């Protein structure tokens, strides 16, 4: 059961507020649920989601296919209205966008050069030209795209295109980055390289990130906290604090006994949820 637009705005707007310095919670979800109506059938995508995300925290969400991860992210991006519950997001600096989204693929503009793609959000905000150029230059450098600044997306590999998406999101300088399986379509080598680059840029910027992934390895390598969701309808099954030291290097993380321990704990929960999802598909 959806909300009317006005009801929704009443729910969201008062909570996108300027924070006081002592406030640490950036995103708070209380009892969030979402139902979709298809023909006469109601599908509960997510239910009873309660979680708090701290300012500067890197959060990964893993869960079986179809458990509502994208729905949750779309609610955070305000592309979707929750059917129930309260979403609170603290907007600290009104000169910056509250959030930017990075999608799995097809998110770069094919008619724009790499440089123009990265500059897009800043240009739309009509920021001074030299400020835009400095930000673009910075992220071209950080993502190894300098040589391709004037190339068009069709001249780039899949990995390069995702770099452009990541560079654009960071250059836009949002307070919250919402990432929906951004590396899922990449081959293993490119995925590792981009994970390493993302972690490096994030460790410098410490933005609040919500990152959806199917990969337990990826979640542990990137996150401060991993939430595991239940199968349909999606609820939070468990949360894991990822207490691995930073800065992180992929080889060190993967070889550490703590990584193995976390992997096994998360997999034990996820395996049960994936099996449940399979059983309900067979019914
Ligand atoms: N716009 C929509 N209309 C109807 N049902 C929807 C809509 N969006 C999502 N759903 C349903 O809600 C449930 C959750 O979907 P969602 O895409 O959020 O899951 P997911 O965990 O991101 O899936 P995956 O891991 O496969 O990408 C699914 O049953 C899906 O069919």
UniProtKB/TrEMBL annotation:
Keywords: ATP-binding, Nucleotide-binding, Transport
Recorded GO MF terms: ATP binding
CDD domains for this protein: ABC_NrtD_SsuB_transporters
Keyword hit for Cell cycle: no
InterPro entries linked to this entry: AAA+_ATPase (IPR003593), ABC_transporter-like_ATP-bd (IPR003439), ABC_transporter-like_CS (IPR017871), ABC_transporter_ATP-bind (IPR050166), P-loop_NTPase (IPR027417)
Domain ABC transporter, chain residue ranges per copy: 27-256
A Pfam family reported for this protein in Swiss-Prot or TrEMBL: ABC_tran
SUPFAM superfamilies: P-loop containing nucleoside triphosphate hydrolases (SSF52540)
Gene3D superfamilies xrefs: P-loop containing nucleotide triphosphate hydrolases (3.40.50.300)
PANTHER family to which the protein is assigned, alphabetical: ALIPHATIC SULFONATES IMPORT ATP-BINDING PROTEIN SSUB, TAURINE IMPORT ATP-BINDING PROTEIN-RELATED
Name used for this protein in its record: ABC transporter ATP-binding protein
Originating organism: Fodinisporobacter ferrooxydans
């Amino acid at each position: 059961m959806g909300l009317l637009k006005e009801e929704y705005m009443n729910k969201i707007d008062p909570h996108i507020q300027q924070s006081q310095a002592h406030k640490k919670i950036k995103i708070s979800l209380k009892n969030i649920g979402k139902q979709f109506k298809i023909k006469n059938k109601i599908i509960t995508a997510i239910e009873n989601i309660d979680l708090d995300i701290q300012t500067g925290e890197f959060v990964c969400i893993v869960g079986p296919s179809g458990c509502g991860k994208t729905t949750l992210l779309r609610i955070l991006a305000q592309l979707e209205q929750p059917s129930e519950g309260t979403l609170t997001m603290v907007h600290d600096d009104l000169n910056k966008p509250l959030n930017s989204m990075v999608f799995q693929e097809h998110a770069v503009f094919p008619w724009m050069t790499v440089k123009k793609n990265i500059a897009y959000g800043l240009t739309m905000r009509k920021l001074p030209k030299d400020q835009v150029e400095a930000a673009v230059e910075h992220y071209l450098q950080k993502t190894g795209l300098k040589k391709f600044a004037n190339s068009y997306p069709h001249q780039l590999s899949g990995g390069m295109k995702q770099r452009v998406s990541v560079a654009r999101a960071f250059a836009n300088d949002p307070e919250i980055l919402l990432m929906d399986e951004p590396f899922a379509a990449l081959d293993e080598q490119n995925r590792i390289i981009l994970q390493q680059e993302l972690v490096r840029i994030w460790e410098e910027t410490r933005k609040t990130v919500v990152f959806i992934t199917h990969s337990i390895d990826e979640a542990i390598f990137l996150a401060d906290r991993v939430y595991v969701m239940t199968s349909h309808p999606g609820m939070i099954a468990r949360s894991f604090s990822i207490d691995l030291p930073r800065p992180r290097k992929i080889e060190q993380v993967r070889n550490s006994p703590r990584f193995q321990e976390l992997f096994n704990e998360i997999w034990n929960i996820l395996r049960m949820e994936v099996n449940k999802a399979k059983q309900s598909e067979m019914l």
